[in-house]
Amino acid sequence: MHAAQAAGRNPVAVDRPGWPKDFVWATIVLVACFSVPLTRLVWFAATSELYSYVLLVPFVSAYLAWLNRRNVRGFSGAPHRFAVLAWCAGSILLAGYWLAVWSGRPMANQDGLAWTTSAFVCFFFGVCGLFAGREALRAMRFPMCFLVFMVPFPTLVHNWLESFLQRGSALTAYGLFQLAGTPVFCNDLNFQLPGFALQVAPVCSGIHSSLVLFLTSLVAGHLFLRSPWKRGILALAVLPLGLLRNGLRIFVIGQLCIHIGPEMIHSAIHRDGGPVFFALSMVPFFLLLILLRRSEPVLAGPTDQKRSS
C-alpha cells in the first residue's frame, strides 16, 4: 500500500539496474558501423611498437567500469544534452575526415585513424549520454574518458612529443655526465666523449615507456587516490621520471663505451635494455604513490560517525 503510494507520487524515479539492453544494442550497432576503421586501428596497433597499448585501453576501461558498477544507481531513458554535444563533435570529426579524403590530399594512416577513432569515441559518448542518467555518467566518467587513449596521436603531435622527449633526454644525460665528471662536449643531440662520439636518436626518446607510465599513473591515481591534486601530482611526475630514465640509459651506455669499448653501443643493454630502465623508473613512481596514499585522510567508518554524533 505504502509502496504503491510512493510509486504514484514519483513514478519516474524507478531506475533499471544494470546496463539496459538498448544501450548494448546501440553499442553493437555503433561498432558495426565503424568496423572498417576499428579493424584498421587494431591492425595498426598490433604492428606498432608505440601504439601497442591501444589494444588494452578498451579492456582497462571496461574493467574500471565493472569495478565502479556499484556506484551506478540506474539509467534514465530521457536523452541527455551531453549526448547531443558528443554526436555533434563526432559528426564534425567524421565530416572533416571525409573532406580531407575527398580533397585528394595525401594523409598518413596514423592521421586517418586519429580522425576516425576520435569520431567513434565521441559517438560512443553520445550513446552513453542517451541511455545513462546523470548519476551513471558521473560514476563512469573516468572509464569513459580513458577511452580517449584509443586515439593515436596525429603525426604532427607525435613528432613534436618525440622531439621534446629526445632533446629532454639528451639534456638530462648531459647533466649526468657533468655530475660524474666525465669530459663531454654536447652539440644539440651529439655527444663527444673520450674516444667515442654518441648521438641521441629518436628511438632514444622513450616515448613508448613514457606513455605507458603516464597511463599507469592515471589508473593508479583513480584507484588509490581520492584527492584530484594528488592525482595530478602523480601524473605530472611521469615527465621528470621519464626524462631521468632515458637520460640515465644514455649515460650508462656512454660510460660503458668509454670504459669497456665503443662496441658496447651495440650491446644488449642498448638494444634490449628498455624494460630494465622502465622497471627502475617504477621504483620512485610507486614510492611517490605510497607517499601520496598515506598522506590522505582516513575515511571515518560507521562506528566513528556514531561516536562523533
Give a description of the structure.
- The chain has 309 residues and is mainly alpha-helical.
- The protein has two domains: 15-152, no CATH class; 157-294, no CATH class.
- It has 15 helices and three strands.
- The chain has helices spanning 2-9, 21-33, 35-46, 57-67, 81-102, 109-131, 134-139, 141-146, 155-179, 207-224, 228-236, 238-259, 268-271, 274-294, 302-308, and strands spanning 185-187, 190-193, 196-199.
- Strands 1-2-3 form a three-stranded antiparallel β-sheet, with helices on one face.
- Strand 2 and strand 3 (196-199) form a beta hairpin.
- Helix 3 crosses helix 6 (109-131), helix 5 runs antiparallel to helix 6 and helix 10 packs antiparallel against helix 12.
- The chain is globular and about 70 Å long.
Helix/strand layout:
Elements: H1 2-9, H2 21-33, H3 35-46, H4 57-67, H5 81-102, H6 109-131, H7 134-139, H8 141-146, H9 155-179, E1 185-187, E2 190-193, E3 196-199, H10 207-224, H11 228-236, H12 238-259, H13 268-271, H14 274-294, H15 302-308
Antiparallel strand pairs: 1-2, 2-3
Short description:
Helices cover 67% and strands 4% of the residues.
